[in-house]
Specification:
The protein has helices at about 1-20, 25-40, 45-70, 75, 95-115, 120-140, 145-155, 155-165, 170-195, 195-200, 205-210, 215-230, 235, 240-265, 270-295. The protein is an all-alpha fold. α7 (about 145-155) crosses α9 (about 170-195), α9 packs antiparallel against α12 (about 215-230) and α9 (about 170-195) packs antiparallel against α15 (about 270-295).
């Protein structure tokens, strides 16, 4: 019996530390990183870069997420969406979480320096510090534009993947960063509307709290138009072909539809459904980029 209890306790601890890394967010980031890698070269990505490069990026992202858990533990404790997180419930101590975050980031940096190149490691470190320190530690509590400004750190993965494969920065990966940068505000503001009362209770100046829902909905529509325009630029600069253009137009039109549904308030749960669609949107858009790229190579 004692052994069984010990095993269950160990399993719970393992799950707690996994939760600190925000694995679902990291998986979406890795998808965009992988697309950046595969778009960067026609010769194929070396398996060492593919495996250890993405592992290093994932570990650094997980480390940044763990820092976020530590800094936000008091906020998480009063929000329904986050009150069961490991630090909010006291299952993991702040010291243990920070040690875990530091170890992940250090190991991730070591992998990137060993199997990719110094530029990838430096850019990943900048992204980690941007999210864990600048956004989480300062911007989140300082301005309702926190998501807009801090979104740049979360938009970096396709650039990191591209640089890992090539060793240099060019216009194409910066365009991929711009797509995610434009996607972040309508994505997160939809969630912020859905969780408005919780953010207000936690005293976080999210846009719906400081400027109201109508103002936020208008900006979601405007940013979605910007996102649609930006998403067409890979076709404009001949980075992608007709397949991607059709997908970008279709996915963008659907995103706009959800933005207007949210603006008009004609459906229940429109905010959370818009948020959920935005995740599918980004995933499918980057998959379309990848499929189109290899289709062009085979023509």
């Amino acid at each position: 019996m004692a052994t069984l209890i010990g095993e269950r306790h160990s399993q719970a601890i393992w799950r707690d530390y996994l939760e600190l890394t925000k694995p679902k967010v990291v998986v979406l980031m890795l998808i965009t990183s992988l697309v950046g890698m595969f778009l960067a070269t026609r010769a194929g990505v070396p398996w060492t870069v593919l495996v250890f490069g993405n592992l290093g990026i994932a570990m650094c992202a997980g480390g940044a997420a763990a820092v976020n858990h530590v800094v936000d533990r008091r906020i998480d404790a009063v929000m329904a969406r986050t009150h069961k997180r490991p630090l909010a419930e006291g299952r993991v101590s702040p010291t243990a979480a920070l040690t875990f975050a530091f170890a992940l980031a250090l190991a991730g940096q070591a992998l990137l320096l060993t199997f990719t190149n110094p530029l990838t490691a430096w850019l990943t470190l900048a992204s980690l510090l941007g999210y864990a320190v600048i956004y989480t530690g300062f911007l989140k509590r300082a301005t309702p534009q926190n998501i807009v400004i801090g979104g740049l750190a979360g938009a970096a993965p396709p650039l990191l993947g591209w640089v890992a494969a090539t060793g240099h920065v060019s216009a194409e990966p910066l365009l991929l960063v711009l797509i995610i940068f434009a996607w972040t505000p309508p994505h997160f503001w939809a969630l912020a509307i859905h969780r408005k009362e919780e953010y207000a209770k936690a005293d976080i100046p999210m846009l719906p709290v400081t400027h109201g829902e109508h103002y936020t909905k208008v900006h979601i529509v405007l940013y979605t138009f910007v996102l649609l325009a930006v998403s067409l630029l890979p076709f404009v600069i001949h980075m992608s072909g007709m397949l991607y253009l059709i997908c970008a137009l279709g996915l963008g039109a659907r995103f706009l539809q959800w933005a207007f549904v949210l603006y008009r308030g004609t459906r229940p749960h429109a905010a959370i459904n818009t948020f959920k669609y935005s995740i599918y949107y980004l995933f499918l858009l980057f998959i379309a980029l990848l499929v189109d790229h290899y289709l062009l190579l085979n023509l």
